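User: Please fill in residues for this 122-position structure.
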């Protein structure tokens, strides 16, 4: 499977047809990749242009990943700062919540392990 076809299939249906990366990957370029290249200089497909189009698609994909990663990183930093402020304002309540969550998780885990031991004995 070619790179352009893989990009076309991986796009969410809501973005298909309007996103520039989708259009460049799934337009004429994908059709050109499916045709035979032929032998010698009489080929119907210009391989230099095809390689340049693939480079453009890969470059656009990298930019899309970088921009989405930057947004995720900024949101994570903002949420970490909010959590830090909340923990500093309410330290005892935070310790109580952490203790309660740890207790519940511990009880659930001990219950699961004790059940598996009883099943193995039978």
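Assistant: Residues filled in for all 122 positions:
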């Amino acid at each position: 499977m070619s790179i352009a076809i893989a990009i076309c299939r991986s796009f969410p249906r809501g973005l298909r047809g309007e996103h520039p990366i989708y259009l460049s990957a799934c337009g004429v370029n994908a059709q050109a990749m499916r045709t035979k290249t032929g032998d010698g200089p009489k080929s119907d497909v210009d391989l230099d242009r095809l390689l340049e189009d693939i480079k453009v698609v890969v470059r656009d994909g990298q930019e899309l990943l970088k921009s989405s990663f930057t947004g995720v990183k900024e949101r994570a930093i903002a949420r970490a700062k909010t959590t830090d402020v909340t923990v500093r304002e309410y330290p005892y309540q935070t310790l109580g919540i952490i203790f309660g969550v740890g207790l519940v998780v511990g009880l659930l885990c001990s219950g699961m392990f004790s059940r598996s031991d009883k099943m193995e004995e039978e």
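For context: Residues 114 and 120 are 10 Å apart (CA to CA).
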